[in-house]
Design goal:
The chain is an alpha+beta fold. It contains 9 helices and 20 strands. The protein binds adenosine-5'-diphosphate and magnesium ion.
Length: about 375
């Protein structure tokens, strides 16, 4: 059983409290991303789950079993780190085989363990058994490195080294795969390819996976669920789409995409029961979010705003005039930084060759559809 449960996990160091009560509930076979800025406690959480770090308090369950007192090598977690942590004097095959040998070190009789230890201490590994050969071969095939088994790891690119690290974790057939910023050292293009590879393997093997990243795009594009962390706590746990459309607070909203966020007051509701929010004296917007609060944050995603072209009209109260401050061509999209009664509004439109483009100083009509005006 590969489910992972973390209950009220606290980790205090001498000077810092890294985790202030983290809860996670990850079902077997799920791909979970742990997303948050540097220093928020992601690595500490992973190290506690893997067993490299002893929690100050709280419980960790893998399957149905509390593992707080189970040593790391018996938790059956595969780990992949940002730094690949490969052995430079071993080739690809040996690097992957190594983790199987390491596991042998913790099992078997005293005599067998002593032998394994001696073998590991010698510079080269002894001839692997048929079973080890098969397992290593399978793991390398998974990461598409079967053809490079004999290659020294120093002769590999960063992306290939990361694949070796992944194969080394997979060869153990772990019940949980823990990855701590595994793609951070790769360039953008390679990162995208590796995302696809990792996701494919995860779905093939249906292996419970926790993937740490500070990159929202990575988290949102790969994971079934995302837990957003801040200052040693989980702020929100949701699917990527929920997180994007209904962030719990401005921190999450901002962390999972660019956003326009304003202070607002709910003044009244319209005939349909939708709240009308005052943002400035002259700007009142209707929102689709039902709320009991009076003081709210108003979130509008840049791609949720529409610039109305000449001749097009919409039936909506949420149409306002704005001035173009900057227009930025981004390739597939174009971004407009607008000014709306002293407030900045960012709009992102799909770029199509035949649409009217606007320049600095133009006045435009913008429509903020009420379902895109999110109150939090
Ligand atoms: P992240 O991985 O999200 O960047 P970490 O889990 O590495 O964050 O760190 C969380 C907090 O705990 C930080 O403030 C960090 O300085 C502190 N911390 C982490 N490890 C140690 C340690 N071994 N000793 C003291 N403080 C630590
Ligand atoms: Mg970290």
């Amino acid at each position: 059983m590969g489910s992972v449960k973390v209950q009220n996990l606290v980790k205090k160091y001498d000077k810092a409290t890294a985790l202030k009560g983290v809860d996670l509930d990850i079902k077997e076979g799920e791909f979970y991303a742990l997303l948050g800025p540097s220093g928020c406690g992601k690595t500490t959480t992973m190290r506690c789950i893997a067993g490299f770090e002893k929690p100050t308090s709280g419980e960790i369950l893998i399957g149905d079993k509390v593992v707080n007192n189970v040593p790391a090598n018996r938790r059956n977690c595969g780990m992949v780190f940002q730094s690949y942590a490969l052995f430079p004097h071993y080739n690809v095959f040996e690097n992957v085989a190594y983790s199987l040998n390491i596991r042998d070190l913790y099992s078997g009789s005293m005599g067998q363990r002593a032998k394994t230890f001696a073998r590991l201490m010698s510079r080269r590994l002894s001839k692997p058994t048929k079973e080890i050969q098969r397992k290593v071969h399978d793991a390398l095939e998974y990461v598409e490195l079967g053809h490079l088994a004999e290659r020294g790891v120093n002769e590999l690119s960063g992306g290939q080294q990361q694949r070796v690290a992944l194969a080394r974790a997979l060869v153990m057939e772990p019940s949980v795969l823990l990855m701590d910023e595994p793609l951070s050292n790769l360039d953008k293009k390679l990162r995208n390819t590796m995302r696809t590879t990792i996701r494919r393997i995860q779905q093939d093997l249906k292996i419970t996976t926790i993937f740490v990243t500070h990159d929202q795009e990575e988290a949102m594009s790969m994971a079934d669920h995302v837990a957003v962390m801040r200052d040693g706590e989980i702020v929100q746990m949701a699917t990527p789409t929920e997180l994007y459309s209904s962030p719990k607070d401005p921190f999450v909203a901002d962390f999972v995409g660019s956003s326009n966020i304003y202070e607002g007051q709910v003044m009244e509701t319209n005939a349909q029961g939708n709240p009308i929010v005052k943002i400035t004296d002259n700007i009142h917007l209707v929102s689709d979010t039902r709320t009991d609060k009076k003081d709210v944050k108003v979130l509008v995603r840049p791609e949720g705003i529409e610039i109305l072209r000449k001749g097009s009209t919409v039936k909506s109260e949420n149409v306002v005039e704005a001035k173009v401050k900057i227009s930025t061509y981004l390739g597939p999209t174009i971004r407009y930084d607008l000014e709306l009664e002293g407030m900045d509004v960012m709009v992102e439109e799909e770029f199509q060759p035949n649409t009217t483009l606007y320049a600095e100083g133009d006045t435009v009509s913008v429509h903020l559809p009420m379902e895109r005006v999110v109150l939090i």
